[in-house]
Specification:
Helix content: over 70%
Order of helices and strands: HH
Structural class: mainly alpha
Largest sheet: none
Number of strands: 0
Amino acid sequence: MAAGWFKGGSEDDVDELNTAINEQSGEERRLAGRFQKAMNEFATERSLETCLDALNLSIQLANIRAKTAKSWEHYARMMEGEVTRLSRPEKK
């Protein structure tokens, strides 16, 4: 992500945030696949073990989704600050 225009933080901040969001999104996809499989196993077996496996994965999935949401919220705040900065009239 080329962020040379961004003055509200360093280009590294934007790049790190972009990397974190991408990693979290990838982890979310992996967990969602595992959760779907665990739910199918639970629906078939209806055992305590398969129930706990599905519950554990659902908790992990909720945690990664919360982290991703916070990362996007931080990104939005950074962009909002940059839009505000860019929309101010220039002082001469």
